[in-house]
């Protein structure tokens, strides 16, 4: 299995869930921009599950040497790459912040996804799981830069699923709502609408085994976002969301 964004608590919880369920992987490739933290997780799954893992440094803000990945083969790719950025008004007009949000969540991520998608297509097998966000379902003033990048990523996964369908490769889009993670620490999240990484991992694993196309981590979010998507624009533009 290939894991992009392996410092993510959701990614790590999914790896553990899959191993607990008896999934067998010759090796798990943990791509990360934080090697020290990821090496601790690699040691953890080695001790707990006797699972071999290799930590590979990947910084999406820098130039990528794809030749390093030539010998990496897998049947599952799990992408949990995400960067929320600074959502304040100051952050909105900080072009550095904007570029980093777009680069990490979409523009620099998609070429990496494509690189491995091509390998899956060549083998005519495998599953690609991408974590997008409910923020991409409709642009809202509170986080529309992040939301626009996630909307683009959702569209990419949809097109990739369509393209790879007859190549026997399945693409699963996961749309988490509020998540209790380091990325959202300190934000005023409604506990009834917030999932833990373990809850998310269980939902994602279930969707993975059922070969779903799109899944919301908490079902309530599919209802919430359906309502938000269908609010007429002349009303929506006046709302504080």
TrEMBL record:
The keyword Oxidoreductase appears for this protein: yes
InterPro entries: NAD(P)-bd_dom_sf, SDR_fam
Name listed for the protein in its UniProt record: SDR family NAD(P)-dependent oxidoreductase
Record GO terms (molecular function): oxidoreductase activity
Species: Chryseobacterium sediminis
Gene3D superfamilies to which the protein is assigned, alphabetical: NAD(P)-binding Rossmann-like Domain
SUPFAM superfamilies on file: NAD(P)-binding Rossmann-fold domains
Keyword annotations from UniProtKB, A to Z: Membrane, NADP, Oxidoreductase, Transmembrane, Transmembrane helix
The keyword Oxidoreductase is annotated on this UniProt entry: yes
